[in-house]
Specification:
Pfam family, one: Fer4_22
Oligomer: single chain
Keywords: Iron, Iron-sulfur, Metal-binding
Order of helices and strands: EHEEEEHHEEEHEHHHHEEHHH
Protein name: 4Fe-4S ferredoxin-type domain-containing protein
GO molecular function, one term: iron-sulfur cluster binding
Number of strands: 11
Strand content: 15-25%
Length: 334
Amino acid sequence: MKSYLLSPDKLLDFVKELSSDGSLYYPELENGKTHIVGYDVSREFKPNFERIRTAENIKHFFFPSRDTVARFPKDEVIPVRKRYLFGVKNCDLRGIDVYDRVFVGWEPVDPLYKERRDKTIIISADCPEPEDSCFCNLLGLNPYVEGLSDLNFTVVPNGLLFDAFTKKGEAIIEAHKDFFTEAKEEDKKQRAMIRDQAIKKLNTINSRVFKKDLSARVGAADKERIRDARDECVECHACLHGCPTCYCFLLSDYKKGKDIERIRLWDACYYAAYARVGGGANPRSRLDERFWNRFQCKFDFFFKYENMYACSGCGRCLLGCSAKIDIREILWNL
């Protein structure tokens, strides 16, 4: 596979060209955190690619928290514009991997998700400086990307070192070849060194590993073993709404003028009414049952379906939790 180098002085022009035929989003540092912002020629372009994933996950682009999925009696199709997600980290790509399986790989195929996915170019970036909340390495992921995105880059001393993983990615390189030069061996050595350092840092942060039979342990666990964490939970739901892999939703119909809209909303298994059925019966009426369902869903049920965990190790649940519950501690102790 050929690698290509984009010099720093050409980055802005490259971004301008990409944004000429679609919306472009990238990470920008603000108050110590990176956030997703849309490229706008009227404001200064200040990307930050070397910090960890953005505070927001990228699932909003594919699976919005509130989504009109149908209108009656006249259904109006709103076209999706081409867009570029620039600087996505590997932990957020795990979320896309989960969604590709759930919304496209399983039946029925979700046409809204598929169209958004097809019209989105993902340009991912290495994560050279993992932080204490990161644990992607415990789930079989690396702090760099080797597939799934269309293009990936590493920030090296001489610029941005790109690899193309898909035909879309190759087409971008070809269409903008004047911006790129073929990478030198020294650039590739720098990338290898940066990646090795990131892995070492992650292994230091997470010196303990999860048991190899984690799925079976979660499936057989006694709920009393997680009693302390459960008792601390205040049901703020930050762990679920901030998670890049959660995919539960509910459908509701609302009147709008003379029409009826069917709205898809995010659902969360910690909601007291999540499992409630007709007649008012609720098989998970207690918090301990709902609390453990999250672990079963991500580490047992999904693993049995797809042989992978529906967790990316992004650490958003750790940082968002009002009670500061660390999911790693629970899983380490099983």
